[in-house]
Amino acid sequence: AMHGVSLSIGSADGVRDDYLHRLKALAARVRPLWVSDHLSWSRVGAHNSHDLLPLPFTQESLLHVAARVRLVQDVLERPIVLENVSSYVQWKTSSMSESQFLSELSFLTGCELLLDVNNVYVSARNQDFDPWQFILELPHERIRQIHLAGHSDYGQYLIDTHDQPIADPVWSLYSKTLSYLGPTSTLIERDDQFPPLEELLSELAHARAIAKSVISGATP
């Protein structure tokens, strides 16, 4: 699977043709099962924030992003898979939830979804919404992959740092999610402060044990 951070599909500037065609050439070489990126924006003109910034979830924004998704899919000649991002504040102009926005976007364009369970938990804690309700509102048949990661807990808020072990509440939400979705391709992300390999393999074993329990019908 190919996973990117630079598509900036929600940018008012639109998707850059040079990046998109390089992405298509890379996909032709790698021949991945899918190509994914984030429902976010990061670029305005020559300025790049190097962060995955959330969109206002409005009808205008939905139509804007849907047009970009169709363009990307036409060029790549495949559905794009879009991931929910961690967020820390909401746009006052938003008229729908992120989960509703993702559902509508998938319906309008045929794009698929990458469900980052850690991102759901981080956003839910920061913005005081129910993470399980978020997941239930997504079209489960469109979810192609799940991501897991660690975050940093600062008490009143969480930061998605990808440099900590996966937190117990995220494991619990993942177990519940997998019981709902059934077996789903899962990736564990770690970007910094790498522990001994044995600790990483332990997280992998735990994820596999949850998946095995779901397949067997046992309680995770």
SSE map:
Blueprint: E1 2-3, H1 17-30, E2 35-38, E3 41-44, E4 47-53, H2 59-76, E5 80-83, H3 98-109, E6 112-116, H4 117-127, H5 131-136, E7 143-148, E8 152-153, E9 158-159, H6 168-181, E10 186-188, H7 197-216
Parallel strand pairs: 1-2, 2-5, 5-6, 6-7, 7-10
Antiparallel strand pairs: 3-4, 8-9
Helix pairs in contact: 2-3, 6-7
Give a structural overview:
The chain has 220 residues and is of the alpha/beta class. The chain has seven helices and ten strands. Strands 1-2-5-6-7-10 form a six-stranded parallel sheet. Helix 3 links the parallel strand 5 and strand 6. Helix 2 (59-76) crosses helix 3 and helix 6 packs parallel to helix 7 (197-216). It is globular and about 40 Å long. The model has no long low-confidence stretch (mean pLDDT 94).
